[in-house]
Amino acid sequence: KKHYKLCIVGGGSAGIANGSKFGRKLGAGNVCIVEPSEVHYYQPMWTLVGGGVKNFTQSGKATADVMPQTVDWIKARAEEFSPDDNLVRCSDGTQITYDYLIVAMGLQLSFEKIKGLPEAFQYDGVGSNFSPKYVEKTFRAIQNFKGGNAIFTFPNTPIKCAGAPQKIMYLAEDYWARNKIRDKANISYNTALPVVFGVKKYAEILAALCQKRNLKINYRHNLVEVIPDKKEAVFEHLDTGEKVTFPYDMIHITPPMGPLEVLKKSPLADAVGWVDVDKQTLQHVRYPNVFSTGDCSSLPTSKTAAAVAAQCGILYNNLSAIMDSQKPPKKYDGYTSCPLVTSKGKCILAEFDYDLQPLETFPVDQGKERRTMWHLKANVMPEIYWTGLLKGRWAGPGFYRKAMRLGMGK
Ligand code: FAD
Ligand code: UQ1
Question: Ligand 1 mean position to 9 CA, how many Å?
Answer without folding.
Answer: 13
